[in-house]
Every structure is written in C-alpha cells, then in structure tokens.
C-alpha cells in the first residue's frame, strides 16, 4: 500500500527589513512529489529579479535528496547572479541530514532572520 | 418462484414477499446489465468500423499523437473542410489542448500573436494553446457537450476576428468527442471547400464521425498507456539486471578477515551500491555508494562513479587523494543537482589498519565483543559532485586499527530511514543496540540479523529507499611474520585476484 504523498506549502513575501530580500517559508515535506512546486516558486522569484533568498525552514519536516539537489542547484544559480541564499532555522532533523552530507559547508545557515539579513547584505 | 414453492420451504409470507422483491430486482438489474453490454458491443463495433476505414491498427506500436493525426486527416477529408483540429481535454486541469492539426487551422479564441502571421509556425502555435473549458467556441462545446454549427462565421460575434487573410473563417463546425457523459475533447473543422458553407447535413455527418472518433481515441489512449507502461517496465528490468551484474559476485575471501555485503533496492533501479577491489597486492579497497537520483539517470551516475573509483584507486593508498580525483570526474560528468555519497576505505590487509574517508555518507560504525558501546566515526566530509577540489579537499582522512574481534560496518541511509506503519524511523539508536546483540556471529550473520530486525520493525511496510550493508570482521589479529594472510583461493573472481592490476569490470 503506497503512503499518501505529503504536501508542501510555500509562502513567499519580501522581507520586512529589506524589500530586496525574498523570504520563502516552507512547511511540510520537500521530496520528489513536491520539489516541482518548490522549483516553480524559486524560478518565479528569480525571474522577478530577486537574487537574495531566505528559505525559512522552520516548519520543514523533511527534505529528501531530490529536495536537497534542487536547493543545491538554486544556491549555485543565485550565487552566479551575485546573490545568496540562507537557510533559516532548519529543524534538528533537517540540519542533521544536511550536516552529514557536508552541506553545512556550502549552505549558509542562520538561526534568526536578523542574522540572515545581515549575512545577505554583507556578502552579496 | 411462486409463493407456494416458497411456502414449502417453510418460509413465512413476509419473507416470501421479500425474496420475491429481491428476485424481481435481480431480474431488472440483469436486464439493465444486458442493455449496457449491448450498448458497449455497438460502440465497440462502431469504433472498429472507423478504425478499419482509416486503416489504423491498434497494437503495441501505437502512438497516440500519430493516431490522432490520422483521425483528424480522415475527418477533414470526409467533410471536405479546409482545416481541422482535435483538442483533448485534461480532466485534472479542465484544459483543452490541440493534439492534431490539419491545414491552416486558426485560433478559436481572441488572441494577438505575431507568430500567427507566419504560416509555417501556425500548427506549432495552435498546439501550444491552452483553452479553458468554457473559453471561446471550442471551450463552449467542451462545456455543454453539444455540437455547434456556425454557417456565417464572418458576421458571428462569437468568432474571433483575425487580421491575416489566410486565417479568415467563413463557416465552422465544432463537435464534442463524447462517450455518454464523458467528454474527451472536441473536434473542429473550418471553411468548407468551394463556395458554400457548412450546413445541417455536414453537421450530422460530423456528429456521427465525432462519436466514433471519441470511441477510437479512448481505445487508442488506453492501448498507448498500456504499451508505454510495458516499455517502462521492460527498461527497468534491463537496468536492474545491469545493476546486479555490476555488484561484486562474492566478497573477497581473505585469511583472517570475514567480509560480507548485502544490497536490496527499493524499486527495480536502486541508488545504492558497494564494491571491493584490490588496490595493490596487499591493500583491499572497500566502498559503499549512494546516488541521489533514482531510476535510469541515477543508475548511469552510479556507473560513472564506480568506474571512476576503480580507475583512480589503482595503486593509491590514500582514500582522500583518490576521492578528490573521483570528485573532479563526477563534478564534470553530472548535472548540478546530482550528488553522490560514498565511504571509501583502504585496508592494509597484513596489518589490519584501515584508512578511510566519508564523502557525505552515513557514519562508519566499529564495535567489538569487549566494548560496551559501538563507536560512530564521523570524519568531516562532503558528498561527491557538488563542489570544486578546493572546497572538497577539506575532507578528513581517518585511520583505524582493527583488532581481533572488531567489526566495521558501513551502511546507507535506507537502513536508518526504514519506516514502520506510523512513519517512525528505524534510527541509529536501534541499529547500535542491535549490533551489540550480534557481536559473536559471522559478518554475514550480523548483516542478516540487522535485516531481520529492520523487517520486524517495518512489519510489511514497503520501503522507499534502498538498503545496503557491508561488514568487515577481524577473526585473526595481524598476520604472523612471513605470512601475508591473503587468500590463494583460485576460484575468487578475476577482479579480486591479487595479480590483477587492471580490472575488466
């Protein structure tokens, strides 16, 4: 019996502290079923001209290798455009998965929105 | 069944009446079923009739779009129209899309597009158009399920005005492709050849053809889907066989070392693999690999990684140096979002020392009959195929010394992430406590013990990730002076023979 696919909700809005930074809040599961929605949301903002991203992972329960691969691709894309991407407050579980893979060295993690904003302002 | 015979069964009147009603109901239902079967037989005959007339064979070589082109051609010719198109409805999105276009078929809803002035781009453009149910003439017919005849398109307000002359519509017929209540799409023809416009007779002819076409489209779609499924299953079977072939035939048999491995894909094509090979006459390379992509693309990446590893590992005793070169290859040969995790170790067989690196993979576990707690080793590392050499070179190479009674275990995340019905994970805790119970058995038994525990835990829930385990147990301490401690087993596969410096695999 196949398990029902678990959903992903994406809420995007410009950052209160800096309108040039777009915050994408993810809730739910980022896996093969939902990665296309994530891709679409990211691509739309890239097309709109955003290059500074905060991915709020506070309510992200789970990320699969498909989700990680997609995130990786966007990080590189955004950097190529002179921007940056910060992962905000990932859960212990999500952080553990990313840390084991060595992503703590590639992604920037932040534990508060202020930290994320100042990183993006300084580095991009 | 009469009341008398019912009574003879000792049944009361009320029960008898009840039974009679059930019997009548059954008879009515049977009659209804028979009517339905009759209707289905007639529909099938009509569909086959059209199929015969247009010379279309429904078999495994069927292609939906090709068949639609043939049907569209036939109808346009039969009705003497200048152009026509078949639109199919996607029931999930409620959007119609032109799948077959014959002749200069104009857009059926208001649009302004430069491309429309170029004849050769017209068909492409029409096919890309998405029409919502209810939108324009085509959408309207899809919504109502009733066919439409517009004899004087030039003066009809529903017909969009076009600026290019070759797109002018003078008369139009649109008919639904309908099977009882189900609307599969719409068929439209424009501009009767010659002076006249379409009339009622043309409308009836098209309605008839559209009915038959709907049946054919339904049948063709079912066959095409089934054929596609069979093709995919066949491809997966082939790729699965290929992957099984790549796995080492058997674990190396080395005097004093007990090595075992197991891999179980979750689907036909796995993302996990393992390998053993001689780096040089006294050093054994062991690797466990997990590719991020699934299916055939993942299998191709796996093949690239494994052959890169074997090639780069030759004669190099530093796993870190080897993986730096493998990383460069994987980075070059794969797309941005593909990554590979690997733990690769080189065992100095005579001394039982192992150097290893962890490229973003699960920890290496070591434990011993004497230890109370197994150890998790997590040297710094990052997955292959993601970063350039400068960043990748931060990976840490570890060296451990395996003593008598020690076991080293490599595994993939499918073990940790195996789930039960309540979506709980098997987890590292349970794995570690399981290992402590398996200390006194052979490497193979230990692996079987872990697998059995995973099966008990998941209790029949199918797993979504591959499960791979590799165990190395030291039976005898360092080889004595003069002994190399290597197996002279002549039956070991070519890839594992001591003198094999180049490997065919």
Please give the structural blueprint:
The complex is a heterodimer of chains A (124) and B (505).
Chain A: E1 8-14, E2 21-30, H1 35-47, E3 52-63, H2 65-80, E4 84-88, H3 92-101, E5 108-110, H4 113-123
Parallel strand pairs in A: 2-3, 3-4, 4-5
Antiparallel strand pairs in A: 1-2
Helix pairs in contact in A: 1-2
Chain B: H1 3-7, H2 13-54, H3 64-78, E1 81-90, E2 95-102, H4 119-128, E3 130-132, H5 136-144, E4 148-150, E5 172-179, E6 182-192, H6 200-246, E7 257-264, E8 272-280, E9 283-291, H7 295-313, H8 319-333, E10 340-348, E11 353-359, E12 364-368, E13 375-377, H9 389-392, E14 398-401, E15 406-411, H10 413-416, H11 427-437, H12 443-458, E16 467-474
Antiparallel strand pairs in B: 1-2, 1-6, 2-3, 4-5, 5-6, 7-16, 8-9, 9-10, 10-11, 11-14, 12-13, 12-15, 15-16
Question: How would you describe this structure in keywords?
Answer:
heterodimer; A: alpha/beta; Transcription Regulator spoIIAA; 5 strands; B: alpha+beta; Beta-Lactamase; 3 domains; five-stranded antiparallel sheet; 12 helices; elongated
CATH class of chain A: Alpha Beta
Strand order, main sheet of chain A: write it out.
1-2-3-4-5
Largest sheet strand order of chain B = 3-2-1-6-5-4
Largest sheet of chain A: 5 strands, mixed
Mean pLDDT of chain A: 90
Our measurement of the CA-to-CA distance between the termini of chain B, rounded to an integer number of angstroms, reads 77 Å
Annotated CATH homologous superfamily of the largest domain in chain B: PPM-type phosphatase domain
- Counting helices, strands and paired strands, the structural category of chain A is alpha/beta
Q: Please, what is the CATH homologous superfamily of chain A?
A: STAS domain
Which word captures the global form of chain B? elongated
Taking pLDDT < 50 over at least 5 consecutive residues as the criterion, the unreliable ranges of chain A are none
Number of domains of chain B: 3
Fraction of residues in β-strands of chain B = 15-25%
Find the structural class of chain B using helix and strand composition.
Answer: alpha+beta
Q: Work out the strand percent of chain A.
A: 25-35%
CATH topology category name of the largest domain in chain B: Phosphatase 2c, domain 1
């Amino acid at each position: 019996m196949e398990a029902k696919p678990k959903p992903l909700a994406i809420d995007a809005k410009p950052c209160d502290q800096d309108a040039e930074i777009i915050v994408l809040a993810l809730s739910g599961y980022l896996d093969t079923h939902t990665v296309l929605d994530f891709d679409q949301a990211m691509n739309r903002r890239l097309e709109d001209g955003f290059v500074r991203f905060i991915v709020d992972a506070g309510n992200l329960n789970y990320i699969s290798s498909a989700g990680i691969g997609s995130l990786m691709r966007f990080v590189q894309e955004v950097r190529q455009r002179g921007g940056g991407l910060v992962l905000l407050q990932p859960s212990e579980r999500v952080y553990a998965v990313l840390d084991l893979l060595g992503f703590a060295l590639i992604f920037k993690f932040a534990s508060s929105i202020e930290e994320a904003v100042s990183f993006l302002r300084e580095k991009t | 069944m009469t009341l008398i015979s019912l009574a003879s069964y000792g049944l009361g009147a009320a029960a008898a009446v009840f039974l009679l009603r059930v019997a009548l109901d059954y008879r009515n239902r049977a009659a209804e079923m028979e009517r339905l079967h009759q209707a289905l037989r007639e529909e099938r005959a009509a569909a086959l009739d059209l199929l015969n007339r247009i010379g279309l064979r429904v078999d495994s070589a069927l292609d939906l779009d090709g068949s639609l082109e043939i049907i569209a051609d036939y109808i346009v010719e039969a009705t003497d129209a200048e152009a026509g198109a078949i639109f199919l409805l996607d029931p999930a999105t409620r959007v119609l899309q032109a799948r077959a276009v014959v002749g200069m078929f104009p857009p059926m809803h208001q649009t302004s597009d430069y491309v429309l002035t170029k004849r050769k781009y017209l068909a492409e453009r029409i096919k890309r158009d998405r029409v919502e149910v209810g939108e324009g003439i085509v959408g309207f017919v899809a919504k109502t399920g009733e066919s439409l005849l517009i004899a004087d398109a030039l003066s009809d307000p529903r017909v969009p005005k076009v600026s290019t002359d070759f797109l002018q519509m003078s008369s139009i017929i649109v008919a639904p492709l309908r099977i009882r209540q189900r609307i599969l799409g719409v068929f439209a023809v424009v501009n009767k050849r010659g002076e006249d416009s379409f009339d009622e007779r043309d409308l009836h002819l098209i309605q008839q053809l559209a009915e038959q076409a709907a049946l054919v489209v339904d049948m063709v779609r079912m066959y095409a889907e089934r054929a596609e499924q069979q093709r995919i299953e066949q491809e997966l079977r082939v790729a699965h066989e290929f992957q099984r072939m790549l796995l080492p035939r058997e674990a190396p048999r080395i005097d004093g070392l007990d090595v075992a491995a197991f891999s179980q894909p979750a689907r036909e094509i796995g993302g996990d693999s393992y390998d053993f090979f001689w780096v040089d006459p006294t050093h054994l390379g062991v690797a466990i690999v997990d590719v991020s992509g699934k299916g055939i693309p993942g299998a191709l990446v796996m093949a690239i990684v494994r052959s890169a590893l074997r090639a780069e590992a030759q004669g190099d005793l530093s796993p870190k140096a080897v993986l730096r070169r493998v990383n460069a290859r994987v980075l070059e040969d794969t797309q941005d979002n593909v990554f590979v995790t690997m733990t690769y170790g080189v065992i100095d067989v005579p001394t039982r020392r192992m150097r290893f690196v962890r490229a973003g993979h699960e920890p290496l576990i070591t434990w011993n009959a004497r230890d109370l707690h197994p150890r998790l080793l997590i040297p710094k590392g990052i997955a292959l195929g993601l970063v350039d050499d400068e960043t990748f070179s931060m990976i840490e190479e570890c060296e451990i010394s395996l003593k008598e009674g020690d076991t080293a275990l490599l595994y993939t995340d499918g073990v940790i992430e195996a789930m039960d019905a309540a979506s709980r994970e098997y987890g590292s805790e349970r794995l570690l406590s399981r290992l402590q119970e398996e200390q006194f058995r052979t490497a193979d038994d230990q692996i079987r013990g872990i697998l059995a525990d995973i099966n008990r835990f998941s209790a029949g829930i199918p797993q979504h990730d591959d499960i791979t385990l590799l165990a190395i147990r030291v039976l005898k301490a360092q080889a004595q002076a003069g002994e190399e401690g290597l197996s002279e087993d002549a039956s070991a596969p070519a890839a594992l023979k001591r003198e094999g410096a180049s490997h065919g695999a």
